[in-house]
Structures are given as C-alpha cells and as structure tokens.
Amino acid sequence: MIHSTIGNTGHLLVIVAFVTALVATYAYFKAGMAGGTIEDTLTWKRFARIVFYFHVAAVLGVVFSLYWIIGNHYFEYHYAWKNSSLSLPTGYTISSFWQDQEGSFLLWIFWNVILGTVLIFSNRSWEAPVMTVFALVQAFLTSMILGVVIPGLDLKIGSTPFLLLKEVMPDLPVYKMDPNFIPKDGNGLNPLLQNYWMVIHPPTLFLGFATTLIPFSFAIAGLWTKKIQEWIRPALPWALFSAMILGIGILMGAYWAYETLNFGSYWNWDPVENSSIVPWLVLVAAVHTMIIGRKNATALKTSFILTIATFILILYSTFMTRSGVLGNASVHSFTDLGLSGQLLIYLLTFTIVAIGLLVYRWKSLPNDEEEVSTYSQEFWIFIGATLLCLSGFQILATTSIPVYNKIAEAFGTVLNMALPADQVAHYNKFQLWFFSLIIVLTGIGQFFWWKRVGKGKLQALYNPLLIALLISAAVITFKGVKDIQYIVLLTTAIFAVVANGTILLNIIRGNYNLSGGAITHIGVALMLIGILFSSAYTRVVSINNSGLMISRSEEFTSNDNKENKENITLWLNKAEKMGDYMLTWRDVRVEPRHIPGYIPKSWVDIVEGDFHAVALKDIVLDGKKYNSKGDTIEIFPENFYYEIEYREPSGRIFTLFPRVQINPRMGGIVSSPDIQRKVDKDLYTYVSMVTNPNAEPVWSQTENFTVNLRDTFFVNDYVAILDNVVRTEQVEGVTLGAGDAAVKAIIRVLDKDKEFVITPSFVIRDRMVARKPEVSNELGMRIQFQEINPQTGQFSFSVNTTQRDFIVMKATEKPLINILWLGTFVLVIGFIMATVRRFKDFVKMRNKESQPAGQRKVKPKVQTV
Amino acid sequence: MKKIQIFGLVIIAVAIGIIVSTAGDASTYVDFTKAKEMAQDGDNESIHVVGKLKKDVAGRIVEMEYKPEIDPNYFVFTLVDNQNVEQRVIYKNTKPQDFDKSEQVVVVGKMKDGAFSAEKILMKCPSKYENGKMETTEHTATKS
C-alpha cells in the first residue's frame, strides 16, 4: 500500500512554509519601516510573529514527515528508496535524512527556524528588521524544496523530497506490470557515510552555515534602521558562536576524512573543503573588526563589509557545491539538481541588496578624525583581519577556476583552465606564509590589546620573543626541521604560544572571563604546530624491500627503489618485514551487529544481498559464547576488516584492522584506514588493494597426480609430500554411520619458510563415494582425494590452483598529530569563553536599555577591552 | 598620502600578485596532440587530458596492464582522447578501484619518454547511489 498521506502532508507543509515565510517577510518589513504610527508598527510586528510561528510549525512538520518516511522504510518514496535501506542501523537512518540535497536544505531550514525563534525571544528591539532578513532567507531556502511546476511555463521551482518512486522513474518496466509496485528494500547509504562523524558533522556544519545569517541580519538591520554602531553588540556573541560552530564543523569533516578516507590526511584542499573554510576565515576577520568597530570608524565600515561578505560567501559556496559547477573538480560535491538558476538568483539577490544598501548608507557612516597610530591595538587587529581576508581570497581565487570557465562559456569563449595539478603544493605555497604572519600577529596583537606595550615601550615583548626563539631553536635541532618555510612557521607558532601564554597568565590573575582571546590564539598556534609536523613530516613506513616487486622500469629502480615503492604486498599468514616491524596479514574479519569486536569471516556464511549470516561454528569471543553453530546473526555485510598483526622489535604485538567496504551494487572496494594512536605519533594503515573476499576463486584446470605413499610431487611450484593416509572418524559436513568408512590423506606442502598440511578426505558410504576437497587460501590450492587403487597401492589426487590471497597496504607515521587535536580543543574552549563573555555584555546592555528612561545612565561606559 | 591609502595599495598589490600566481599555477585541459607538442617544446607543466578507455568491439577494455604480484605500483593503460588520439598512460600507483567501470577518465600529468606519465587520475563512474548520475573520484600518485 502506498502511504500517500504522509507525502502529501509533507509537500503541503513545504508550500505552507514557503508562503508563511513570504508573508512574514512582508509583515516584518512593514513593522521595521519607520513612518507608521507606533500602534501600526506593533500590530504588524505581532502579526509577523504569529505568521513566523506558523512557519516554524510547518517546517517542523516537514522535517517530521520526511523522517517518518525514512524511519518507517516507505520505499515507495524516492528519497527513502535512494538513501536508506532496511539493514541500516537507526543512527545512520538519521544520516540518510541529509544525505541528499533536499534533506540538507531542510536541515539548514530547520536550524534557521530554531535560531529565528531564539532571536525573537532574546532580542525584541531588533526583532522587526533582523527577522525580515531571516524570513526572506527562509523563503528562498524553502523554495529550493518546493517542487512546484508552474503550469504553462514548464518552470520547475525547487525539488521536493516527497516524490514517489514512480513519479521519479515512471519508465521502469515494472510499473507496466504492477502500477502499485513498491521496492522491498532501498539503495542504502553510501558506506563511507556510515560513520558516527557523519551523523554529527553535517548538522554541526549546517548550524555553522545557518548562524552566519545572524551577524549578517544585524548588519543589514543596522544599515536599514541607521543604528550604525549599535548592531555590533548583539551581533558579536553570535558571530563568535558562529565562528566556533562553523570551525568545529569544518574540523569534524577533516577528522572524518582522516579516519575514513584513505587519502591519508585530514585536509586535501578539495574545492568543497575550501568553500567552507573561506567564509570561516572572513568571519574570523569580521569578529576581530567588530571588537574594535565601536571605537574605530574604519573598523566599523570593515565590519559591515566582512559580515556581509561572510554570508555571501556561504551562499557562493552553496552555489558552487550544489550547482554541478565543480562536478569535474571535486570528489564530493553534489550533482546538479536543476536548481542552479534558482541558487544563482538567491546568491545575486542578497549580494545586490546588501551591497546596494551599504553603498546607499556609506556616506552617513562615521569617519575617523585622525589616523590610527602604528602603536595602537586597532592597527594590529586590522592588519590581522586583512591577512585573514587575503588568505581566504587566495583560496577562493583558485577554487573558483571552474567558475571562470563557466562564465567564459556564457560569454562564448573557451578558457580551458583547470585546477593546479598539484593543489596541495599550490595552496601551501601561499597559506604557509599567510599563517606564519597571522600567528605572529596574534601574539603582538594581544600585547597591544592589553596595553602591555605601546609607543616607546616595546620592552615587554622582548622576553616572550627570547623564550620563543630558544624553544624553537631546541625543537628545530631536536626534530631536524630543515626547510626554511617550516622553520619560520614553527618559530612563529611557538612565539604565539609563548606571547599569548604570557598574556593569559597576566589576565587570569585579574578576571579569567576575559581570557577567551588568548586561549583561542594559543589553540590556533598549537593546531598549526600539529599540522606542520603531522603533514610535512609524515613518514612512509611501508617501504617495500622484499625484492618481489622490483619493476623493469628504470625509474622504479633508481633512487634506492624508495620513491615509488610505498606499498607492500602481504600474502595470507606470511610474515613480511616493514621498517622496524614484522607484519603478517592474518585474516579477513566481519563485523557482527550485536557482538563486540570482529569475528573471522570463515566462522560465518554470509547470506547474499542481506545483512544476515549463518554461524558455521559456535561464536565464542573472550570466553563468552554469543551464538551457537547454525544460528543466524546480524552483520554489517559491506564491511570487511583486514587483520594485520604488527610485531615490534621489542616483541610486543598489536593488531590493526583497516577496513574495506564492499557494496554488492557497486562491485568495487572502498578502503578506510585503521590508526594505532600513540602519544607522539599515529601509525596510519590502509589497504589499497585486496582480492575480493566475496568472489568465488577462479580455479585453474585440474591436474591429476597418482602417487605412492611418501612420494614427492610438484604442485604449483611447491614441493608436496604424501606423508600418510589414515582412517578418520570425523569428516566436516558428513555424518558417518556404522557401515561407513572414511580416510584422509596427509599431504605436506613446503613453502619457502613454512610447511602446510592439507588433508583431503575420501568417504565410502552405502557403496557411494564422497570426496571432500580441502582448500588452502595461503597457498591458493585445492586438493581432492580422487581414488585409491588397492592393486597398485597408489593414490590419486586432483589439484586446482588459483591466485593466492594477497593485500596491498600502505602505512605512514604522522608525528605530533595529537597537538593538532589538542589545539582544536583549546580553540573551542577559548571561543566558548569569548562567546559567553560577549553575550553577558549584550544582556547587561539590553536590560539597561529596557529600563525606564529616567533611571538610565547618561552614557554607557565605553568598553575598552 | 594617508596611511590607510598606502595600506590599501599594498593590499591591492598582494591581491594582484595572488591572481597572477594562481593563473600561473593553473593547469589546462588539452588533448594528447597538444601534450606531445608541449613536451617537445620543453614545456614541463602538468596538464589535464580528458579521454575514454580503449575498448574492443565487444566493449571490453583492452591494453590495460596491471600485475600487483609483480609491482602494485605500476599500472599502464591506453586512453583515447576526444580527438580519437590513443596514448599509453603510465600511472605509478595502485590501480584505482572501479577503474574498469569508468566512463570518462581525466589524467593529470605530462608526456615523458613517449608515454603519458600520470600523477593523478580523476574518474567518472556511473554512480551506485544516484542512479543514472555520474560520480567523480580522484586518485593521486605518490610524489616522485
């Protein structure tokens, strides 16, 4: 039965949400316009608020409807069918909600209504102008999921997630036979996204995206209502909050990439990654100019420009990642949904309106009477903000290359520009220097900010400088840092830690509430140190020196064989030396759902196309029995874990389980790393190639051997010896009765450094003969006991061979990566402290302003720090 | 001149420097004929070439060579560019997953000793998650 009610409800609610957003925009606009009577304004405001509440309810309803469809596995809906499946665990059902474009728009819309509601309750005096901008953004966003086709014009507005499968794919042949066909199971979620970071990363990132709207709305509201300076106080805590959440979101993405993708790092300068870091850099610059914007008119003007730029850049990045412009350039941008035009209108509307308003008001913005002094805090903060923007500009200029091509195309020329061949080197070339300078400024800037130094008294900076140089010299020598750019980055980062640390110690003694800035800067400096060591000094440990893989080509043999030899091949159960380690690939394991850890794949028989497996033996782990032989257990059918045993020189053994994901619908493998975490470094391992664990081996043609006892024969280049033929009581898979007889041959196969014993059996039962072959995956060999000849006393065997199981793996060491994670943590704490402080500041001022006029102090004290 | 104006000029200068340098680093999409010309002219810049894998009449991929047991970091195939020019491509890394399924391949690299030496391979495969749509994946050879 097709559950059409829920889909229709959802679709209807999207339309309601769109209409209420438009009405709320108009009503808030009327309320925000000066000129009407106070009563008029109040009426419009009350009306607008009620309409916005309806909008909130409608959006919540849409979210609920879509989740209901996915959660209940209504596969008649295209969205549920495409992005989820029956076997998906609950946690990931949530991720399939935002795996597709429509759902991720919905997530953004959802955050906006939450934030809008918070704003209405926390800030009545700014409500009308701020919410006008909010409601307008909501109108644009909901239009993206409207899915309405205007009749006559054949114009499609938005793409709805509530389409039925048969509406999306009406040509499927099955609908001719059964118009009410409902798929039994869905397509499932991309296995790479089945990771807990993918459950929390997108909501965090979209909350970050959504929060950038708040400073933007306040800036627009400030321009509109001519409260040219007052908007900063309520906007600043939100700007800090936004910078924090967006930063966390970006870093979570980086961490997910580190843990799950096998490009071996947390940052790849991928266009999609870039398009979220650029707005973040500009936002951080905006936070800094906002802090000084109430005292300095140039900073005030800059704050307007930067807060507007942040939001426009968010829209631009949305456009880039969703319009298909980046399709050729990025690994993980969305494909085009046919919404590029709509997104472009969205982007252009806000760009034009915001810039137009700013230009219109520019003349009435205040000017500084005198030049800012080189020894003032404003000067140094300003330089820092400028560098942040330039850094962002450089990233943007390169990332936009595909956009230049499109623009050129629109004008009829062909540019044929491609992204730099070596992107990482290209970006690092600039960003390394930008960040060296920025991080120095955080140290100097803090000293000026707290007035520890000034004109004629720069001495206070000498001690931190001296200490920093000493520490850097020690680290450079000890760690063997040789490249000049790394030396510079390291020294500057250490200087920032020392300088900010000094300031921190000083202010913590006074009022720890004010130490957010210093802590945040220390966090950034630590992160840079971590990034420097973990990426520039990554060491490949999986250097192959087995001699097996020496290629014919000259380039391979030159340079000590090292450069191109960074993968090693492991054969099943065959130890191989890698650097200091002795490596052995032990087994392939599968992941059961309700049993901790992994179990050997040979213990279970996986039901094809399902998430169940049948236990081939009792499942006992750590002395605890979970299942008996023959039980059906639930597993994650797409995940295989390659048990790789590392033996250290000391004899200590640890095991890593890099993962390979196999999707039956996809036929390929996706590899994820496993990481051995130590305090000073990570050992990062992933397999880059495996023999397909699901595929049936392709056996060679049968070879027959007839031999006597203790004869030697050659199979697949191995020496084999028939040691004995003995009577046996037990044959796997056969129940022996009283009159049955069974024998097994004991065949010894000699490998280079190990012996294997293969025991095929021969059963005579009710005058019938059964032959039970034995397979050795290590040798890639199957031996079957064919015949016993009582006259000659000879035995016959048939042998098939196949490719031996192997994996190709790569291992790297990433030194000091924990400093990066520690820095992130410190950064977040700093941001939280700064946000809380600025929010308290705002609340104090708001409450003061709402007091009756008579009791108000004449002029609020200008805040200096 | 006011300090702020000098400041502004410096920023504009830096921004122009960034743009010029970006244009210098930017690669281009060319075909193999052009790639060979560039190599002959001693132009050592990395370039992008778009092409398809060489297939026989039955649609099977031909002239693809990969023997992991001998060398997992040596993969050779033949790419046919949009002008139908065939070229051997050497990729010194493991063969990318799903390579055989790719509809379109972008190789980034340069001509070297008569073969195209690829540093990076971008593939467009029919996506398994978004039916009928293409999905791009990227593979980079270890730096040499």
UniProtKB/TrEMBL annotation, chain A:
GO aspect biological process, one term: cytochrome complex assembly
Keyword Lipid biosynthesis (UniProt): no
GO terms for cellular component: membrane
UniProt entry keywords in alphabetical sequence: Cytochrome c-type biogenesis, Membrane, Transmembrane, Transmembrane helix
One MF term in the entry's GO annotations: heme transmembrane transporter activity
TM segment ranges: 12-29, 50-70, 105-121, 133-153, 205-224, 236-257, 277-293, 300-319, 339-359, 379-397, 430-449, 461-478, 484-505, 517-537, 816-836
Positions of the Cytochrome c assembly protein domain: 99-323
Cross-referenced Pfam families: Cytochrom_C_asm
InterPro entries for this protein: Cyt_c_assembly (IPR002541), Cyt_c_biogenesis (IPR003567)
Keyword Magnesium: no
Similarity comment: family membership: Belongs to the CcmF/CycK/Ccl1/NrfE/CcsA family.
Protein name: Cytochrome c biogenesis protein CcsA
Species in which this protein is naturally found: Dyadobacter pollutisoli
Automatic annotation (TrEMBL), chain B:
Subcellular localization, as worded in the UniProt entry: Membrane
GO MF, any single term: heme binding
Keyword tags: Cytochrome c-type biogenesis, Heme, Iron, Membrane, Metal-binding
Predominant subcellular localization, coarse grouping: membrane
GO BP, sorted A to Z: cytochrome complex assembly; protein-heme linkage
Highest taxon listed in the record's lineage: Bacteria
Signal sequence, renumbered to the chain: none
UniProt cross-references to Gene3D superfamilies, sorted A to Z: Nucleic acid-binding proteins
A GO CC term assigned to this protein in UniProt: plasma membrane
Native species: Dyadobacter pollutisoli
Pfam families for this protein: CcmE
The name this protein goes by in its record: Cytochrome c maturation protein CcmE
